[in-house]
Here is the input.
Amino acid sequence: MLKKLFFVTIVSVVCMSAGVTALANSEENVVLRFVMNSTTFTHDGVPRRADVAPFFDTANNRAMLPLRTIAEELDMTISWIESTQTVTLEKDGFSVSIIIDTPLPGGMGMPIIVNDHTMVPIRYIADAMNITVQWDEENNASIITVPSTLLAPTPAFTVSVAPLS
Here is the structure.
């Protein structure tokens, strides 16, 4: 485990200092690239279109991305419970549930509805799903890298966010 952590740290430092996303070029990863304020994004370099554009929330310093688009591109099941305003993502025993307009743990902001679409701070989803998110300052883009091992069946894991009492 320590070797893996050391390796990931070294790879991250090398990628950041070189200004290159080495993981994005690996055939073993799924890479989603979202440009802020554009409905066009790429999935492993293939252009796609989202129903709603991601945006940078300057008031809270967060990149907000469309949750459904991410879930569909990762072949996750997404469900909506209107009465509780709860969105749940599931795949192979992994589950994340969030409640609209409810603060996320760790001060990561909160999910909101924009044009009938759930927008989430990408950092929260990255942490919940243990995926890599990088910010491309020059192109105003968020790059999500999901290792293929994460897309394989995993042991049951659930993250839920409940409203504060």
Observations:
- Helices lie at 2-18, 67-73, 122-129, 148-151.
